[in-house]
Amino acid sequence: MARAILLGKPYPQGATWDGSGVNFALYSENATAVELCLFSSLDDKNPEVIRLPEQTSFVWHCYLPGVQAGQLYAYRVYGLYEPSKGLRFNPAKLLIDPYAVAICGAVNWKAPIFPYQIGAAEEDLKPDKRDSAWGMPKCIVGNPHFDWEGDRPLKIPLSDSVIYEVHVKGFSFRKPDVPPELRGTYAGLASEASIRHFKSLGVTAVELMPIHDFLDDKHLVDRGLKNYWGYNTTNFFSPAARYSASGDSGSQVAEFKSAVKTLHRHGLEVILDVVYNHTSEGNHLGPMLSFRGVDNLTYYRVTADNPRFYMDYTGTGNTLNVRHPQVLRLIMDSLRYWATEMHVDGFRFDLAAALARELHDVDRLSAFFDVIYQDPILSQLKLIAEPWDVGEGGYQVGKFPVLWAEWNGKYRDTVRRYWKGDAGQLSDLAHRLMGSSDLYQHDGRRPFASINFVTAHDGFTLNDLVSYNEKHNEANGEDNRDGANDNYSWNMSVEGATDDPKINAMRERQKRNFLATLFLSQGVPMLSGGMEISRTQNGNNNAYCQDNEISWLDWNLTECKQAFLEFTSNLIKFRLDHPNFHRRKFFQDRSIRHPEDADVLWLRPDGKQMADEEWDQGWQRCLGVFLNGRTLGDVNLSAQPVTDDDFLLLLNCYYEPVDFSIPELESDRKWEFVIDTRNTAFEKSGKSVRAGESITLLERSLVLLRASNGR
Fold first, then answer.
1. Per residue in 290-311, is it b (16+ CB within 10 Å) or e — as a string?
2. Does the active-site annotation cover 386?
């Protein structure tokens, strides 16, 4: 009996099941024909082939009655193979639907997945006509039905957020109190043991490293490695099945939804690290998996003088063509899908500057920003940019428009240089401590536009930052040439683990210095997963390909690691309890008659205010900051102004102790010790000092003092 084939509709794109059948729709502007292949199993060698009968506004479509959710499918797209003109159609290559919501199977690099004849004299100019279907994953028709049980967005203000950057597998794969069958999965991330850690730590959001379906690069597979980080996207709608405890038959979608629902139930938001700047198909010599074969000229930016080659602002071989309306639509459809169907709370955009390139330069008025700004759903989410790419003029820290927060690379660099002991850092440090007003105040943004971090997935862990002079990436198989030099070295006499108590004490104090600085700064703090338990990668600062013990969190906590975990959780709780450290507005720069009425005062070790000419004097290494808790204003959007305690933050990055005089703001006030990074615990002894008295700051240490305002 012949199958009924109806014309269907061009929208929505993808495979849409309505309970009675499926509408298939695929955009290809330059194709001459499109075939839909229906597979009975992943290794089905004789799929049912249906030529799509209709094209509307470059969308090829049909409706198949009786097809059910769970059906496996893929495409073959016909057209010219003329790479010199940017046309690379090859119907011998099976293609993943760019709008597929789930994917079954994995790419087999031994299959003929390259569209050209490898080794031919003309390189990529001669097409390969071998069928790639046996080595390609298949798409799955999704079932949209899921019981969210009333789940709603938490809408935690960004100013009150503490973000925890985490790898889904690495977090729980070695966690002994997570059930073995759930370790390293979405379900494991939302397990009782994982949530107990998040809640006791005090974070408000988990930022998941890429979970869009991604590819393990051939050069890694050939060396027995994997793309662990996942910044190599193949599809922007499908959650990676490698993180699913329930397999890759489509249930990975429901498992991810269940994880989000559970995390929300416990007050934790979910932010996705998304990679819309490039795909896993690489440069002109890369494989044909999806976009390249569907319509190369639509989806990728090619060079104007020779469209055989790609513009590469990402360092990966290609750049997505966000200037094209279809590609912009694809990205927006993907973002809305994850927001509305998967209930995520925000996005961190990898190499976001690449998305804003109209012709060549990064343009803050680009269509990408405009479309998000007017979107009633996306504009209300947490939008975080990695504000750079690898192209010319790509470093755009402080230049993204309103609604956007940014990974503040200048914060990271300044704080590292200061605690290293570099000269001339005080002026820049002051800006970073106060929310980087020099970067964000001029364009209508607030302190929470600054996502502050000291370490992230890329680079040394915090423990390694204070333990290694040089990177040690030998396990990556690139002769230690990969990965940037983190520019932190403070001439440690011993690298890595040591039994020397003096060296270990200095390292632990430096870790507390970094952490205390992070959580006592205005802006939004971000922890790199495992920082709180002193995670080490043994000096590897580019562990993107290490899906093993180098990257996985080690939950075997020594007494020292447990103490650092407690210090971290105490810091987070203290920050969230005191609005003085997460103000919604920048400190006011105003002329005042009485210093005690200032929002903030900058102090020298003698207790006097810093003079303008002293900020850039290289010998200055010690700084005091007075934070007035009585000038907060309406920080929580409440009807009544909010007040807090007053604080004195004292920092000494010098290699010798420094005596610091308590300023005479109000002579009868008592300043209680809260934090002294020479110790692992918060002060509970009631130890205090008064105005005019002096305290000794240990070399490379931080002290926080508090004067109560009757809270």
1. bbbbbbbbbbbbbeeeebbbbb
2. yes
The architecture that CATH gives domain 198-499+522-552 is Alpha-Beta Barrel (3.20)
Is 577 one of the catalytic residues? Answer: no
CATH classification (class only), 14-140? mainly beta
The 3-class SS string of 631-698 reads CCECCCCCCCCECCCEEEEEEECCCCCEEEECCCCCCCCEEEEEEECCCCCCCCCCCEEECCCEEEEC
Is the entire prediction scored with pTM above 0.90?
yes
Every domain of the chain and the residues it spans: 14-140, 198-499+522-552
Question: Please, what are the averages of pLDDT over each run of 10 residues along the chain (711 residues)?
Answer: 91 98 98 98 97 98 98 98 98 98 98 94 91 98 97 96 98 98 98 98 98 97 97 98 97 98 98 97 97 98 96 92 95 98 97 72 68 95 88 79 94 95 93 95 92 97 94 95 73 81 94 98 98 97 97 97 97 96 80 66 94 80 92 57 88 95 84 93 81 94 90 57
Query: Is 389 within 8 Å of 395 (Cβ atoms)?
Result: no
Q: Which of 128, 345, 386, 532 is catalytic?
A: 386
Question: What pLDDT, on a 0 to 100 scale, did the predictor assign at position 389?
Answer: 73
Q: Kindly state the helix (H) or strand (E) to which residue 501 belongs, with its residue range.
A: helix 501-519
Catalytic entry in 248, 281, 295, 350: 350
Hey, is 455 helix, strand or coil?
coil
Nearest-angstrom CA–CA distance, 256 and 260:
6
- Which residues are registered as beta bridge partners of 347? 272, 383
Paired strand residues for 74: 37
Q: Which residue spans within 558-616 are E strands per DSSP? A: 600-603
